[in-house]
Amino acid sequence: MLADMVMPSSRPSAHGTTPVAEATSCAAPRERADACPGALRLHRADDGGLARVRVPGGVLDVAQAAALHAAATRLGSGELHLTSRGNVQLRGLREDAGPDLAELLSSAGLLPSPAHERVRNIVASPLSGLDGSGHRDVAGQLTELDQLLCESEALRELSGRFLFAVDDGRGDVAALGADVTLLAEPDGTALLYLGADRDAGVLRVADEHAAAAAVVAAETFLDAVRESGLRAWRVADLAVTGTELARRTALRLGAGAREAPLASLPAAPALGPRTEQIRTAQITEAPVPGPVTGPSGAVALSVLAPLGRLTGRQWELLTRTAEREGDGTLRMTPWRGVVVPGLTRSRAPGVRTALGAAGLVTDPASPWRGAGACAGRPGCAKSLTDVRADAAAALARPGPVPGPGSGSFALPVYWSGCERRCGHPRGDRVEVVAGADGYRVAVVRGTGEELPVPVPAGSDPGAAAAAARVPEDGGPHRDDGTGHGGGALAGAAARESNRPSERSGGRAPAREDSATAGP
Prior knowledge:
globular, 21 strands, six-stranded mixed beta sheet, 9 helices
């Protein structure tokens, strides 16, 4: 059995807490040790301690959601921040918060293995089992993978950046660039990918053995890291390709796995037609804000948190809604949203109205959809401005945002307070980056190529970014032979900028985002 190949933990891990660590960036060079924050090892930010609580698949029951709310209000700023991996960050934690935080989280079952708490990085299709899409519900596979990960003594050595993805076949989280990806196939098997680039290796495994095979793949990665003698956080850091890792994994799995014909992972959102698609997966992206009706008639409501930030009252409302109106769970998404499953068809409109009135995004045409920002000042010392305030002001102004069902295409936009650009999305996007002389705006392709967008001196960079998100013709961006695409980008060549807001001083109210210290 494949599960027998997964080394169980031979000893319980000592539960302990550590003091707040010195500030380090999640974009630190690989010659430094991985300092990615967790729930037991906090990050020191300018506004206090920062804890990142891993929530595999983003799935919380109401008791766990209530524990996170209690931790945020009693020990920190009162806000909760959603990350690009469907996790939760707490900010503004006091210096002595570690033991109390650990107790709250442990009591709620959010720390099943303290030794593995930073490596429980698993994203999963958030609408799996709810909307009738995908090949099957991956909830059981998600739970099994997390359990096996926590039982593997070897995997406690993974970096806090190493990422697993469990995709039900629709191609949403498979496009997020995970190190180990399970993609459901219609024939009862799963494709197991190691790596996310063109050198990714792929195996086919029986669905019932897929979670165990993913653990073996991660252990194979760690073997390759030790063999190299170098520090590697993710598959892309190794000289060994994903294809070679897949071959080694297949040898360990034996007859339970076989190499699959080359099939590329789903691509992240792109300017042009997607040419790298799984032959059996229909590519989908983030859940659209609003109701999602399943085959049984039950309704799930998808909402977005503006810039990934939820106030204590908003979080409390979501938790209460899940308990009284839903199935008792919440699903956080890698797109900084929350899905509330299990609503009745008759009650769903009222719930949507209430959540929208509380400031959550429930409208597909909202300019907040696809918009993100790093923490900025005052929480991040490296930021040059209160970037969240600038982004919020820009998004509050009318702009060319596509309406629901219009068929138009809009790129995500991400505001960064410095050149590190912590937490930016994968794939093609619009970036608004603060520099010493002001903001610059560019369309950035998934390859890293930047297409500058002109921002005349004295004008609004937010307006330039909004125009770059949506082509002038309302349709998909097209290649005009210049490499800059059509629509608002045609002829873009300059990098003019406008000075960022100067209102962000140490006395300003905190406006933080999950991006500080990484994804």
